């Protein structure tokens, strides 16, 4: 486990008690207290790597979303998606995701969920959807998600870490309602497939030569490396709304099977000496 302060690296190794789940906020605090400098902000309390991915229940359905942009008030976004207003755009996306949310479905959310959401009211509507698990990685428009994340950290560590250091603390994983915040990227293992998730498309990612997929967002279907126009960039796919509507009959999400069909049509590419 490692933590990065403003001036130096703080490193500590902790043992998580047997049976503690990844999404247990109390376990995170138990671990955090054992840092050498527990009063310092910690920027990562666990390491999820290609060799230590989050293992998902392969019997559940798996869905991907990115760049929902709920509350976005510009017609260039919701108009291109086939909506007549920002309100219709938000209402329809939440309804379609809500229809998929149940104890048999896992959601991986690659960020940019909401705009202009300082009280995280819109993000909370998304967070309340009853998915079996809902994992979130940061995008570049974190309105709503950021405020919900800060509220979760404050509730988890209040009374144990003094302000203003509490306001600087960034630690993962942390839960808010049904959402597990994972930071800026993550690796998952689902059935027999390892999946790298980052909002921003990467040119090279760990073990891409060994059939590790990369799901991304950010580009709204405009980047040839991730929208299917190029076949020379490896197994990488934009799973944002524009791509989801294209490959999933107008829906704002993609299923694992739809992503697999896209990835199966793309070659494994070796780009460097690894």
Uncertain residue ranges? 1-24, 34-45
What is the CATH homologous superfamily assignment of the domain at 54-151 and 175-264?
Metallo-dependent phosphatases
| Number of H- or I-type helical stretches | 9
What is the percentage of strand-forming residues? 15-25%
CATH class of the domain at 54-151 and 175-264 reads Alpha Beta
By helix and strand content, what is the structural category? alpha/beta
What shape does the CA trace take?
globular
The strand count comes to: 13
Task: Please render the helix and strand layout as text.
Layout: E1 2-4, E2 9-11, H1 25-32, E3 54-55, E4 61-65, H2 75-78, H3 86-100, E5 105-109, H4 121-127, E6 133-136, H5 145-157, H6 165-168, E7 174-176, E8 179-181, E9 185-190, E10 193-198, E11 213-216, H7 224-227, E12 236-238, H8 241-247, E13 254-255, H9 256-264
Parallel strand pairs: 3-9, 4-5, 5-6, 6-8, 10-11, 11-12
Antiparallel strand pairs: 1-2, 4-13, 7-8, 9-10
Report on this model:
The radius of gyration is 19 Å and the shape is globular. The protein has a six-stranded mixed β-sheet. The protein has a domain at 54-151 and 175-264: Purple Acid Phosphatase, chain A, domain 2 (4-Layer Sandwich), CATH 3.60.21. With 274 residues, the chain is of the alpha/beta class. It is built from nine helices and 13 strands. The relative contact order is 0.15. The model is unreliable at 1-24 and 34-45 (pLDDT under 50).
